[in-house]
Request: fold
Amino acid sequence: MDKRHDVIICGCGPAGATAGLALARRGHSVLMLDKARFPRPKLCGGLLTWKSVRLLETVFHESVPGLTEAGVITHVSDRYTIRTPASLLTSGAMPYPFHFIDRSRLDARLLDHAARAGAKVMLGARVTACDPGGGSTPARLTLADGTVLEADHLIGADGANSVVRNSFLGHDRDRFNQFMAPAIEVTLDPAALPEPVECPELYVGFIEAGYGWVFPGQDRVLVGLCGLRRGKVKFSNLFRDFLDFLKIDSRAVPPLRGHPLPYGNALENPVCGHAMLVGDAGGFVEPLFGEGIFYAMCTGLYAGEAVASALEDGQAPGPLYTARLRRDISPELRGSDRLRWLLFRAMKLVGPRSLSLFVNTGSTRLAEMVHGRRSFSWLRRKQWDFLKPGLPASDK
Ligand SMILES: Cc1cc2nc3c(=O)[nH]c(=O)nc-3n(C[C@H](O)[C@H](O)[C@H](O)COP(=O)(O)OP(=O)(O)OC[C@H]3O[C@@H](n4cnc5c(N)ncnc54)[C@H](O)[C@@H]3O)c2cc1C
Reply:
């Protein structure tokens, strides 16, 4: 295998696959690495909003019927409920449906798109060390078998526990970890729940700054809990309390699995030397609901296109990438962060009814905000640049 590459992408989840597709489609040579072999399991609720579906259509040329036929989309619902341990807070219909996907299948399919566009994919390759390089020194990755690879451009798409991020000079690990939420999720047979689950159910009040969920699927139900831990209660004990509250028989519950969720820690500057971070590696997750698949794909697209432009006309990719992030992504994440603290504090001070009052007051606009038709920044109409009509993805 060649040691030196124009571009290496570390991590082949939605962020890495979208970056790889954007580069390969523009004819660039790109090596994609992942420690896993696909399809690989990924702990995730699998909820897609309107903007995620539009991005899949526009960038991957995937359609809802095609994804449904392939078993990627397993359930569709335009309804929701929000509950507390004591009562039903609110429920209603959304102007656009939520689509629920099988993450393992979606990720394998997105990676396949990148590979078919010409990206080289190396699976079972764990990166153990990274040097982002700088100036005339290329970025360097060391693999578990001792192989050292060099790249003119490195995209770190290696998820929440990113090795690439940890190599960034000046990266404030303490702050990043402070807003890394523990999350536990189990997949259950629908019969394990006392009632059938038809629409996403959110539960607030089990954890400060976080929530529990019960998400439907074709032949399974996903039950999860995430949030910023406060106090000394063990997170797995909170989760078991949540299962008890849902009247789920503990014998029906598989061994608990957890994964950290970036929850309000998006990096201001995700560029260092010749490396840039996308998706969970850069903390790009919307901090009210923990929606990360869209932000992974979107930041992957932006980084891939920035590196492609750099290779074509010699521009530095870092400023291209961060300019697009600051215009389209950062205001959403900041607005969502403001809103979640407002809501969580109001619930603590006034009680959970403050949440139902808030949701019911501007329900259509809020629903549009969740789906990405409106911005988390003051509910302005949101125009995603990858959706601008008439422009090929590479020119937007
Ligand atoms: C419990 C839970 C529920 C969630 N539910 C939802 C939801 O319903 N909707 C939603 O939009 N988001 C949800 N999210 C968030 C979403 O899963 C993430 O934001 C999304 O997976 C980020 O994609 P990514 O490509 O950045 O990272 P990942 O999908 O984590 O991909 C990273 C890839 O990098 C590889 N990798 C990691 N380290 C290395 C290494 N050292 N060497 C080589 N390869 C490596 C991994 O194998 C993996 O394939 C949820 C998250 C959790 C934890």
Notes: The chain has eleven helices and 18 strands. The chain has two domains: 4-74+101-178+263-395, 181-258.
